[in-house]
Amino acid sequence: MVALGLQKLKRLIAANRFVEPLMVFGAAILVWMIAAGFDVFEFVHSLTHDFEVYELDELVLLIFLIGNAGYYYAYRSEAKKNREILLRASAEDELDWLSKHDSLTGLPNRRFLQELLNEKAESDPSSIGTGLGVLSIDLDGFKKANDLLGHSGGDAVLMEVSERLKSYDGIDVAVRQGGDEFLALVDRAKGRDPMDVAEEVRAILCEPVTCDGVTHIIGASIGISYYPEDNSDLAKVVQYADLAMYEIKRLKDQSVVRFEPYMDEASHERAKMETDLLTAMNAGEIRPHYQPLVNLETNAIYGFEALARWTRPGYGPVSPEAFVRVAEDMGVITKLSDDLLRMACLDAKAWPDELILSFNLSPVQLTDPLLGLRITKILDSVDFPPRRLEVEITESALVQDFDRAADILAQLRSIGVKLSLDDFGTGYSNLSQLSKLDFDRLKVDQSFIRNFQSEPKQMAIVKTVLSLGNSLGLYTTAEGIENQEQLKVLQELGCGCGQGYLLGRPVDAAATLEMISGMGHGDLVSVQKLAG
Ligand code: C2E
Ligand code: CA
Ligand code: CA
Questions:
Q1: How far is CA 202 from CA 254, 424, 472, in A?
Q2: What span, in angstroms and rounded, lies between the C-alpha atoms of 4 and 17?
Q3: What is the rounded distance in angstroms from the CA atom of residue 529 to the CA atom of residue 478?
Q4: Nearest by Cα to 509 from 219, 266, 306, 228
């Protein structure tokens, strides 16, 4: 406490360079007054007069001058030291500010928020008054604008959004959490309802943003939580606002959602799932099964699609769509996919050489410029010929960043891997773009095959896709064939290949080998035999 007080006094003195000299002069005048009171000057005068022979007056003058010079020197060096202290203090202040603010938008950052949370955690909860509303704000459509405008354009959008948040007075503190995520604190003691504030913030952020003459509409999803109602720990309440915001992303039908306890339970469940998934990956418990792909003209199996399988202890089988999504979110999809591909290639090496291995890639992988290199390395390491590998890519993988995905696909083609467009008809890719990519195969999504005989619209789509495939010189595979009726109609329509429970369900590596050896040596198997 005393040290702190001294430090403050020192800073005050350093800040005002006249204080110290004034103090010294004050002391000098005090000494002079005491000396005058005791007639010291007369005493010195008579002393120097009495000892004139020793030149005592010159000595006194010398002492006086040396004293003054010493004082002047001390004053200069002290002033210099003070200037340095001041400079250092202002540099420290500046560094401190920078470390707690986002350099692009000037808004407080995560670190600032953390310190604020620590401070609040130490303070008495009642000092926060009626409480706070926490808004977790995520911009919708920012990524698209960023891709379109480039990084500087994306930065301009973020700066505009920050300005709007700063100038809106319903918010007490706005923080940039990172990327396109922001956080806002609303002081309810000022009579504001966080729900209303969230609606207003959304309306403000939805106003068009014009950048380089192009107008963009940026939306916002806002999760809200209340302090202290939702939790007496403000850090938890901030986390809850994020959970509510993620819920909006999941539900996709609302823009402002208030936190509810089930979201926290779901997040714990999710964290447990993540741990189990990592454990299973490390133990090699996620393995591919194989579903036959059949040539509908010759009734022969031309290959197998690898489909990942995981039986989660205590829960049973988990859908690959679910755990692949978790792996994507956790950033471990590359490892999972690499491991699965290695296992699948090793399994497929035991099949007849003409059978292909069809392997699903996640959309996230098509943003990885090293994908081609990685796949080449795996194929080399297990000595599996690239011509036997076909990779399945969904349209959604192309919608995100077409040019980058096209580059990666071109790399894969150049090493001899075949390309198949999966779930065709469910995405939003445009045909002129698709025709630029050298696909070998279109897979008609199973949703069109389900009822296509009885639904004229679905029938029209299936026919269009088959003729599109024909005109582009691509193979077409119909997915999800479950009954003889569907198979017959597809054959009549000239669909080249098929896949579905009727032709064979996905089975493990050993059963796949049995299926292949049941076909007799050689390459062919009759569909009837499989279906039977
Ligand atoms: P997909 O690539 O469209 O795979 C076909 C899905 O349809 C598989 O579901 C398969 O079991 C199922 N299926 C096949 N025939 C029929 C049928 O006649 N009727 C019905 N109702 N379904 C049929 P599964 O194995 O649950 O896989 C779901 C999705 O998970 C896959 O859809 C694929 O997108 C993804 N996936 C599976 N394995 C992997 C993988 O190793 N990596 C990646 N990235 N994704 C995978
Ligand atoms: Ca597939
Ligand atoms: Ca599919």
A1: 12, 35, 46
A2: 20
A3: 19
A4: 306
pLDDT at 127: 57
| Alpha carbon distance, N-terminus to C-terminus of the chain | 88
Determine phi and psi for 316, rounding to 5 degrees.
90, -170
Tell the residue nearest (CA) to atom 45 of ligand 1.
360
DSSP state of 108: B
Side chain identity at residue 378, one-letter code: I
Ligand sitting nearest the alpha carbon of 423: 3
Ligand 1 atom 30, closest CA:
321
CA separation for the pair 402, 397 (Å, rounded): 8
Is 478 strand, coil or helix?
strand
* Structure confidence at residue 483 (pLDDT): 95
**The amino acid at 381:** S
Give the pLDDT score at 381. Answer: 98
| pLDDT lower than 50: segments of the chain | 1, 4, 521-532
Provide the whole-model pTM: 0.71
Q: Which residue has the tokens 């002129």?
A: 432
423 CA distance to ligand 3 middle (Å):
4
413-469 pLDDT, tens digit each: 999 999 999 988 887 666 777 788 889 999 999 999 998 988 898 899 899 989 988
Cα distances (angstroms) measured from residue 349 to each of 126, 287, 352, 392: 69, 16, 8, 19
Task: Give the residue whose CA is nearest to atom 20 of ligand 1.
Answer: 480
All residues at 6 or more sequence positions from 187 whose CB lies less than 8 Å from its CB, including other chains: 129, 132, 172
CB proximity list for 322: less than 8 A, separation 6 or greater: none
Ligand 1 — pocket residues by CB below 6 A? 291, 306-308, 319-321, 324, 337, 340, 360-362, 392, 422-423, 446, 480-482, 499-501, 506
Residue-level pLDDT at 43: 85
What phi and psi values does residue 98 have, to the nearest 5 degrees? -60, -40
